[in-house]
Amino acid sequence: MVSKVCELAEKRRHLAPETEKAFQAFSRQVFADGALPAKTKQLIAVAVAHVTQCPYCIKGHTKAALLQGATRQELMEAIWVAAEMRAGGAYAHSALALTAMDDVESQTKA
Question: In b/e form, how buried is each residue of 46-67, taking b as 16+ CB within 10 angstroms?
Fold first, then answer.
């Protein structure tokens, strides 16, 4: 599996080397210590990865967060925040369904 991942990474580099280089530089900059420490950025990335459901990002950023000093408890809390935000989004968007229900009801009464 690792060799396949490396092979695919090499194909990406070969097909668009300058873009790949720019993306890697961007990624390093984004996850560097700044106003937010690198550990916090990795915890955010773990949460976002769970919302976007990217298995590669989940694995990679979980490992990176641990290497930046995150604990298992911090990681799980970040994942719970992601779960709440995902559920909260569904709850908030129920307003669209409720409005559609009202629209149909008012049209059928007219």
Answer: bbbbbeeeeeeebeebbebbbe
